[in-house]
Amino acid sequence: MLEVSVFYEVAMLLMLASVIGLIGLRLHQPMIVSFIVVGMLAGPAGFDIVRSTGHLELLSELGVALLLFLVGLKLDLNLVRTLGAVALNTGLGQIAFTSIAGLLICLGLGMPLLTSIYVAVALTFSSTIIIVKLLSDKRELDALHGRIALGFLIVQDLAVVLAMAVMSALTADAASGGGIGGALLGLAAGAVPLLLLWLIVSWVASPLLQSIAKAPELLIVFALGLATAFAALGDYMGFSKELGGLIAGVALATTPYREAIASRLASLRDFLLVFFFISLGAHLDLRVVGAAVGDALLLSFFVLIGNPLIVMTIMGAMGYRKRTGFLAGLTVAQISEFSLIFIAMGLALGHVDEEAVGLVTLVGVITIGLSTYMILYSQQLYAWVERFLGVFERRVAHREEKYLEGNVGERYDVLLVGLGRYGRALYSRFSDAGFKILGVDFDPDVIRQWKGSGATVVYGDLLDPDMCETLPVDGTKYVVIAVPPHEIGLTHEDPRITLVEALRRRGYSGQIAAIGRSESDIAVLREKGVDIALSPFADAAERAMERLFASPASAG
């Protein structure tokens, strides 16, 4: 067969991804699913385009390392501390439940004991990569359920890394005749230099970046170099490239340049992740897994339903609301790319056969595909099942009550929803005018910061159908929705319209103002009941023109 260069392969993959992505967009399908389909079509079960698998894996690994680097870059260590209990309990609880229940199911399906153990453990790993991408796209990563999900996914990742590091050490020691004691000793020895390097980089990062930031191109090259260097070092030390990339991001998380780095690398991350999802689909060889479809469907159903249920149970017992538990629970309704790596290690050790690898791969594609829809349409899904979820909520959800303190029985002139830069400016103007203001935001850190400054603020998610009922709108003159408009698409609801409709259903007759992004968007807002359409840039331009024409220079 004619030899095809790597460049031609990549060109064909990108064109195929564009075509399938466009079809998926027309059919209102998530891009993740479209790119996995591209991998299946380009893989050995399809057109067999992918021949240079090493190069595709390289691009895929770079994308994964860069994604985890950006996650670490935005990781607030205060978040890990404040959400440590729920992250630890849900992360480890889900691992224990899935491992035990999955083992029993695999044994019931007639799998050998060792194979059952491998498959059950593989089912416990949830994909931080996919969840972070989905929650970022939905602007929910900073919401309470998004932060909790990120917390317990990090806990799971650490457990995954530990398991894979031990497996890697065992694989190496199997050839040299070593045992598990030697593997664990080598694991501990490898952690020390990696942590020392992290401490050194953390200490010198700010002064170093201050010099490098004078050349933006060099700043990006340095960030990429640091991410890949830590990823390579993590892999060399017996950990994983993913953990190395995460540690590199955490090392720069305290610097004032993290936002500049994150914004500049976001497009490159999205491009490289295309190859990760294509690679994931290319691993699915239908010729191998055809006989295991029934088992894969059963195990997929277990992951899609069982994992969210155990998370909701744990979070409900800890005092979180059923909605928060439900939305966080959906993030573990799939298995991870680490599952494929883990089961492949078992194949290399001779503990499992190719059929087990094919089974886990098929479960991965099914659960990743379906859980993507579950997360994207989480608000609609919650509305359908809400009446059945009362068992997962205590009478008093004390974990979330602290965010609502201070508003019961109070009356306010202005209800300001969204405390970003524009919301902060509006709050200052209303306050100067003598209005009594209640601020609302969905970011717990923002709530803590504003409360620390003496402002009256509460936690509220605009997409929460129950939030409007808790807000003190009686006697309120203005409700201002200062949430920046963004491309909502067809995957989830517009939070502005959700709140406006809830307010009007409740009988609120005061003035409602909201930010609009275009004439057509403003028309929709007015149709839904918005009285005043705000346009920060246009309003600022008009104010600037007023000041310019009022200046002495213009008068002369």
Q: What would you note in describing this structure?
A:
- With 556 residues, the chain is mostly helical.
- It is 68% helix and 4% strand.
- It has a 6-stranded parallel β-sheet with strand order 3-2-1-4-5-6, with helices on both faces.
- Strand 4, helix 23 and strand 5 form a beta-alpha-beta unit.
- The longest helix is centred in the first third of the chain and has 33 residues.
- The radius of gyration is 26 Å and the shape is globular.
- The relative contact order is 0.10.
- About 1% of the residues have low confidence.
The CATH architecture term of the largest domain is: Up-down Bundle
Number of helices: 26
The shape, in one word, is globular
CATH class category of the largest domain? Mainly Alpha
